[in-house]
Design goal:
- Helix content is about 50%, strand content about 20%.
- It is of the alpha+beta class.
- It has one domain.
- Strands 1-2 form a two-stranded antiparallel ribbon.
- Strand 3 and strand 4 form a beta hairpin.
- Helix 2 packs antiparallel against helix 3 and helix 3 crosses helix 4.
- The chain starts with a strand and ends with a helix.
């Protein structure tokens, strides 16, 4: 069987029939797939509601849900959140502290009665891991899409 061929079964006779598929995707195909996935991730993860395992006390009541919207952040708020981890020096990676600060800033924008500092200091560990994951996916997807907009010519 040729290299890169894939074997599939036919329904009628149950025999194995080789089908041709490219052995590897081109670099451009991989890049386009990455960008398409990044765009889907951004649409899915940019805004929403997290149901908290550990309620956050604010304004005399316990919040059991935290709305967030990363699209509402200004560039300054985004940069300020990324500056929270003084040990982070790679602009292409996001640390857990940076991600939590980014999520907290987005949640503070969308949830009345809380500011980002309150969220970072009061959020429970299970809820923090969700916020960190959301902000990390947002960060990487936005970096990948941002690269698409940079012109080198």
């Amino acid at each position: 069987m040729p290299q890169g061929a894939k074997t599939t079964a036919t329904e009628s006779e149950g025999e194995q029939v080789p089908t041709q598929e490219p052995a590897q995707k081109s670099q451009e195909d991989k890049r386009q797939e990455l960008l398409a996935n990044a765009e889907k991730q951004l649409l899915r993860i940019s805004a929403g509601t997290v149901t908290l395992e550990t309620p956050i006390r604010a304004g005399g009541k316990d919040l059991t849900e935290l709305d967030y919207d990363l699209r509402k952040l200004t560039g300054w708020e985004y940069a300020d959140a990324l500056d929270t981890d003084k040990g982070a020096h790679d602009p292409m990676k996001i640390s857990a502290k940076q991600a939590l600060a980014l999520f907290a800033a987005a949640a503070a924008k969308a949830t009345k009665g809380l500011d980002a500092k309150d969220i970072m200091e009061r959020i429970g560990p299970m809820d923090a891991s969700i916020g960190i994951r959301i902000a990390s996916v947002f960060f990487m997807a936005s970096v990948n899409l941002g690269n698409k907009r940079i012109s080198n010519g």
